[in-house]
Write a structure and sequence with these properties.
The complex is a heterodimer of chains A (about 575) and B (about 500). Chain A has helices spanning about 5-15, 20-25, 30-50, 55-75, 80-90, 95-110, 115-130, 135-150, 155-165, 170-185, 190-205, 210-225, 230-245, 250-265, 270-285, 290-305, 310-320, 325-340, 345-360, 365-380, 385-400, 405-420, 425-435, 445-480, 485-500, 500-515, 520-540, 540-555, 560-570. Chain A is mainly alpha-helical. In chain A, helix 6 runs parallel beside helix 8, helix 22 (about 405-420) runs antiparallel to helix 23 (about 425-435) and helix 27 (about 520-540) runs parallel beside helix 29. Chain B is mostly helical and about 500 residues long. Chain B is elongated. The two termini of chain B are about 25 Å apart. The chains are: A mainly alpha (about 575), B mainly alpha (about 500). Chain B: It holds the Pfam family B56.
Amino acid sequence: MSENPFEVFIEDMENEEVYLRVNAMHRVRIICTLIGVENIRSQLIPYFDSLLDKEEDEVLFAMAEELGNIAELMPDQSKLLLNLLEKLVSFDETVVREQAVNSITVVCEYLSDPEIVNIIVPMWLRLAQNEDNFICKISAVSLMSSIYGRAGCQKENMRQEFAELCKEETLMVRRAVASKIGEIAQEMEKTYVIAQLLQVVKELCYNEQDTIRQLCSMSLMNIARVLNSQEIKANILPLIILQAEDKSWKVRMSLAQILADVAQILGQEIADFQLIPIFTNLLKDCQSDVRVEAVKSLLRFIKLISRERVYLIIGNIQQLTEDPIAQVKQNICEVIGQVANLLPKQQSQNQLRKCLFQLMSDENWEVRRNAIKAMGVFAIAIEFEELNKLIPHLKRCMNDPKWRVRKETIQTIIQLALQLKQLDIFIEHLEEVFVLFLRDRAAEVRSIGLSSLCELISVYKQEWALGNLLKKCIEILEKDGGSLFRINALYAIQQICFAIEGPQIETNLWPIVQKYLKDPIPNIRFVSLKVAKSFLKKIGNQNISIQIRQSIYGMFEDPDRDVKFYAQEALQY
Amino acid sequence: MQNRTANSKQTATGRQQAQPNPTTQQPRAPPQMVQNMARVTDPKHVPKDIRDQFLKKIHFCSQPYDFNDDTKNVKEKQERSQYLQELFDLLKEPNFVTNLVVPHLDLIIEMIEKNIFRPLPILKKTATNGEIGMEDDDQLIDPAWTHLQPVYEYFLQLIVNEQPDVKSLKIFITHSFIQEFLELFDSEEPREREYLKNILHRLYAKLVPRRKMIRKAINDCFYTLIHETYKFNGAAELLDILASIISGFAVPLREEHVIFFKTVIIPLHKVQTCQFYHEQLLRCSMLFLSKDPTLATFLVEGLLRYWPFANSAKEVMFLNELLEVLEVCEISKLEPLIPKLFKRLIKCIAGPHLQVADRAMCFFENDYFLTILKSYKPFTFPLLVPVIAQIADTHWHKVLQESLNALKTILKEIDYQAFDKALNTKDPKYLYIIQDAKNQKKDRQKIEEKWKNLTKQALQKNPNFKEPVVPYSDTHIVGEHNGLNNGNITIL
């Protein structure tokens, strides 16, 4: 059986449901592959044309996208699609129009240079000169960058027309120019970038509409990509300074968002001498949203400037730790942690440690969480100096009412412990805060602590595991009322067992667990069973092994159904 | 508790608005300047010292201060308020307006610009209560408002005043002035928008030669709302102004106005924040239709095209508007829209939202609508009867079930034979509208099978063929495919 592919498509396209028509439209690729170029020209394109007036935007959006895909299927003949696409780029629904612009760009890739000059450029000029529909002009602006580079003898013509577009009064067109001019600069010859585009962008930077000035930030940055440092200093830098002092916070904010990228493009020298003052001003901005964005860019910026100039920003960082807005503080934490790596040890210790301590006791829990994370990085950067001062803070954080803070704290403690690698210092300072995880109220915190044990034991050896750690576990198992904590202690013992050898398990661990196989609480018996089962896998001694099996066997008649089941299962191994 | 404080705040401001100048009611020593002016015998020649004083005060009021911080420049701010009050009082003396204010309009407008043209602040809610989409009773207050209000009041009175004539004012009301002025309509402060509305309205009334320019700037504002930002706080206020502009349009409408109706008024319906200005939009639409009833079909088409998705409150609004607009439509012109219209109504009636269904049922209580229904009987009966009959039996809500049964009776009364014929059709074509997803899937199986076959053939023909991903399937999110996740969408 063979269906006529085109008919199947039509059948679906006549469905009442829009979503099915959208689906069908996306499958048109299948049809095109099967019916071939000739039928696409004679059947499909006229059919599409008839849809333009009556279809829903969703379907037309799909059509605009698929036209680009169809072009891929018929690279030599893709110009056949341009007529439809030209109509779609003048559609007033933004997403349809943008999609059609993209598809024209795709089609252009398959066209030869003469075709661009003879077909595409005239089309572009029609769009740019359409006085009735400003949407065509917007599309023309969006298409400029993908066409201009190959416009050959028409380049002059296009530049002139673009100059006209830049003078357009409709705000929508101006905004399009402001947002696309950076891309266009990438394609244009440098002399014209300097002669024409810079003038336009300068005027836009002085436009009274803040939305337009806002779009200029990104465009300025992109134009800078094609200029050398001399040209940047003369043309771009003054405009960036203008933006940094803009009366609208929206403009300052959009500059703050990209200032690190700007620094990268403008180069270290300009960053060192001209951008640092701009940045410090944005960090002190009276609008909190600007400060937040500036702080988010800060770390990348600091990494771009010379190390010896980092100190210029330290004052700002210290100030920001006292910012009234929590979001600012949340973001400054990471910066402080990372900056410690860039500064001389002594300096960071003196200036930044106090800031972090303060942030660790902030009233906003997200600030506290980020501060703790940063503290981990910081402590490693200053090579654990004066670790004792940190311990009270870590202790407080391990008792934080928010479990996410405690989660971050235990993770930080684990990181520190793994880096430290000195048993005596570990026992002296970190151990006491580390073991707090055993009795944490949040399962997440407990399980993170548990999962770190193996690695920690491999660093601090089994003497520690069977000594201090085991002692702590036993303490909890014996004295603690909460079954969850006792279960956790049992799991900790299981982790210890994974890290040590059979004989030690026999003498040190088994006697403890044996006791809890008879605990009155079923869940404890249940977990003890699990732990005992892990012992079986590692123990070499026949006698002990038999002893364990017998104990488990004794639980076959346990009153609790789950314990009973698990006991039977454990012995099948 | 919070509501109560908000309300009391509002009533307080309401009072303030009603009496914009409470100070005049209190016995108060006449301000220095008015006092000085009183001794001027010949108003045509204002003494230099008075003129200087006047200019000094204008200049002083043009200084920018940080109004968000009450602790800064306390003294200057007090002085400023006093000067503004004096300047305001001056507007009551026609002689001085002519001889002092009008010659210095440039400085006065500059003073106004320096005060009101500012980057709009973000007003943050202190409490983060309130669900998404809930209307917040708590109004946001711009701390700078108390300092801005006198400037607005001054501007308003300046325009209301008869002395400054069109010629002298016109020079200052440029395109860029209007553009910046319109930007301010996005302010979150409702009292500010109220002033802006009144001022713009009067400017439009007064400056006849600037009308076209003002309309164009308003157009641009709406284009931005429709195509780019999807949110504009002052849309309702601008539409209020438009309503009175539209009532002044001459009949027949000029082409420019018809284009405006088609490219602004109709697309405004599709914006997500439509609820905030729908009342005003409806008024504008109806005014247009009263001038030119032939536009009604375009509006019906637009409404059906931009029908809300997953927003029942908006659906109810659309239904209200649709019925109102239909009453203006010429029945013969509706023909191409009939299938879409009736299918939409059936979907609303069969839909899960009771209020929407109820509103849609109201259509059948409207005589004009019933006439439309009768005029297109060959289409409407086969569509309506089987569907209505089925949901009348199965609907979950008793009241709606009753009105569905009543509707059945109405349809039967209209044409008993056509009703019976439609009811007894073996395979009703339109029942699928109320079908559940499972059955629809079953119906799709045959054609899906065909697609699978075609895909296989395509793969045979071209081994590099990439199978297309369809957006609407059970496995992924449509938002990733409809181009709407471009960061511009505001979630209300």
